[in-house]
Write a structure and sequence with these properties.
Blueprint (H helix, E strand, L loop, with lengths): L1 H17 L6 E9 L3 E10 L6 E8 L2 E13 L2 E11 L9 E7 L9 E7 L15 E2 L2 E7 L2
Antiparallel strand pairs: 1-2, 1-9, 2-3, 3-4, 4-5, 5-6, 6-7, 7-8
Length: 148
């Protein structure tokens, strides 16, 4: 009788995995132009915000910064990705600095999406909540925020 219950439990787990009901993930992805700036992001984490990873890039004027995402905080249609700058051509914001990138996804095609980049001296240990309201509206592009 115990063997039957264990076998049934395993069958349910296998069936769930076979149908794509695996672990849930949070995600933010996309790119946007703001006239003189261009932002790219691809970041994801577990549903609880743990194990964040991904890439960030900002080109603004003659500046070009690339970063590794180390944190992600997603609430509804808003997200914050934070991390460390790994490549920089600007000594004002050197390698090792931190970034905080705010996003608001207001649906496709993205004309109502908003975002803002903030550079900080050191990479944040924890991303702040995505509640900042002074975000810039995209000229072109689209962000997709998934809160799972």
């Amino acid at each position: 009788r115990l063997t039957a219950l264990v076998a049934t439990g395993m069958a349910i787990i296998v069936a769930g995995s076979a149908f794509g009901d695996g672990p849930q993930k949070n995600r933010v992805a996309g790119s946007a132009k703001f006239g003189f700036a261009h932002v790219w992001i691809e970041a994801h984490s577990d549903a609880n915000g743990m194990n964040a990873r991904g890439r960030f890039r900002l080109q603004q004027g003659s500046g070009d910064w690339i970063g590794r995402v180390t944190g992600l905080n997603v609430v509804g249609n808003r997200a914050v990705a934070c991390g460390v700058i790994t490549k920089s051509n600007n000594s004002t914001i050197p390698v090792g600095s931190g970034f905080i990138q705010y996003f608001e996804d207001n649906g496709s095609p993205g004309s109502q999406d908003r975002s803002r980049t903030v550079f900080v001296d050191a990479p944040p240990v924890v991303c702040p909540p995505p509640t900042r309201d002074d975000l810039f509206r995209l000229n072109r592009g689209n962000y997709v925020v998934e809160d799972n």
